[in-house]
């Protein structure tokens, strides 16, 4: 039997990029995948593409910044699936371009946090009753090496060149949120981890980087972790990443 047979997974922002490849990978592993997207046409088309590959993928409308759609998605999952084993919080934005922190627009900071942090928390809270009820609930929050304070601090740090005030700090908050939920759920089967896909060629990275299918692998691995797997960490495909 395949690794994820019988499991139900929700991936937010899965109509393109890394999220699309996470949806594809989880479906290939045998899961029923609920492909979350805020745009109806994009979500339907993406789900149809994967359905055409013989995969069990269904579109679920969800805008992570819109509480009504988040609750409607949770209600739909209860009604249509009756379970949720895996949540991948993938949806994110990075609207800043070439602006140093001293000139960053506070409205862009707010917009970025609405999606990347507050939206992620809202989706997690809405799906948590289902994930707690699952035999081995897994939550994967998409993060980045740019979120790491160690890898970005000081002149010699590998990512000190990156001056994305809103995006980088929102993802540092995602790391902290990951730890908070992991700690709350320590005495349950639910594991909560953050994934660093590395630089992948998507709209968010302006097409720079490796194929998104390669970046998706770490999130798929964390979504399918066994009982002895870690919780409360940040991982790339080469191992644990420092906070
Ligand atoms: N690409 C990289 O190099 C890289 C590196 C490190 C981490 N990451 C992380 O990996 C994840 C996926 O990024 P990506 O590169 O695949 O980006 P992407 O191609 O821009 O895709 C982002 C996805 O998020 C969706 N989204 C944005 N706001 C949303 C909202 N309010 N509600 C629901 N969906 C929303 C987008 O939907 P629309 O199509 O409707 O806009 C899209 O489906 C992100 O969390 C990102 O931070 C990416």
Describe this structure in words.
- The chain is of the alpha/beta class and about 240 residues long.
- The chain has one domain (about 10-240): NAD(P)-binding Rossmann-like Domain (Rossmann fold, 3-Layer(aba) Sandwich).
- The protein is built from seven helices and eight strands, in the order E-H-E-H-E-H-E-H-E-H-H-E-H-E-E.
- It has helices spanning about 15-30, 40-50, 65-80, 105-135, 150, 165-185, 210-225; strands at about 10, 30-35, 55-60, 85-90, 140, 190-195, 235, 240.
- Strands 3-2-1-4-5-6-7-8 form an eight-stranded mixed sheet, sandwiched between helices.
- Strand 6 (about 190-195), helix 7 and strand 7 form a beta-alpha-beta unit.
- The chain is globular.
- About 45% of the residues are buried.
- Bound molecules: NADP nicotinamide-adenine-dinucleotide phosphate.
- NADP nicotinamide-adenine-dinucleotide phosphate (NAP) binds next to helix 1 and helix 4.
- NADP nicotinamide-adenine-dinucleotide phosphate (NAP) binds near residues 42, 62, 90, 200 and 209.
**CATH superfamily membership, which one?**
NAD(P)-binding Rossmann-like Domain
CATH class categorisation: Alpha Beta
**Which residues sit in consecutive blocks of at least 5 with pLDDT less than 50?**
none
Number of helices: 7
Largest sheet: 8 strands, mixed
**CATH second-level architecture:** 3-Layer(aba) Sandwich
What percentage of the residues does DSSP assign to strands (E)?
5-15%
Mean of all residue-level pLDDT scores: 97
CATH topology: Rossmann fold
Q: Describe the oligomeric state of these chains in a short phrase.
A: single chain
Placed side by side, the strands forming the largest sheet appear as 3-2-1-4-5-6-7-8
What is the approximate shape? Answer: globular
Helix share, percent: 40-55%
Q: What class do helices, strands and sheet pairing give?
A: alpha/beta
SSE topology string: EHEHEHEHEHHEHEE
